[in-house]
Amino acid sequence: QVQFVESGGGLVQPGGSLRLSCAASGSIFRAYTMGWYRQAPGNKRELVASISPGGTTYYVDSVKGRFAMSRDSAKNTVYLQMNNLKPEDTAVYYCNYPNYLRSWGQGTQVTVSL
After folding, report:
1. pLDDT value, residue 26
2. Cα three-residue angle 47-108-48, rounded to 5 degrees
3. Which of 4, 25, 35, 52 suits a disulfide with 105, CB 3.0-4.6 Å?
4. Per-residue buried b or exposed e for 58-75, using 16+ beta carbons within 10 Å of the residue's own CB
5. pLDDT above 80 for 1
6. Maximum Cα–Cα distance across the chain
7. Using the 8-state DSSP alphabet, how is residue 84 labeled?
8. Per DSSP, what are the bridge partners of residue 72?
9. Which residues pair with 110 in a beta bridge?
10. What are the tens digits of pLDDT across the range 93-113?
11. pLDDT for 27-79, tens place per residue?
12. Three-state DSSP class for 38?
């Protein structure tokens, strides 16, 4: 069974940076596009970034130029480097396979506030 363990969240001031990590169990990691999602209170969960097995990335417009996603297939881990954070980035962040959704992990809370 695939499991995801997200980490790296925290409280940061506007303009600050965080680096999230997601470790995925199972053998399918290398074959699938991986995504970072976020869900703010009262909002639907949204895909904010993804990376293909070959390294092609996608970013939602609101994070382009500020977030960078990478993957380490040797460690079954993806990362999300978040720079110039804004209060509207506040959410719980999750990882999953966009084309093969599995059970969600616990997520990691990111709070951007003074």
Report:
1. 84
2. 15
3. 4
4. ebeeebeeebbbebeeee
5. no
6. 41
7. S
8. 77
9. 10, 91
10. 999 999 999 999 999 999 999
11. 889 889 999 999 999 999 999 999 999 999 999 999 999 999 999 999 999 99
12. strand
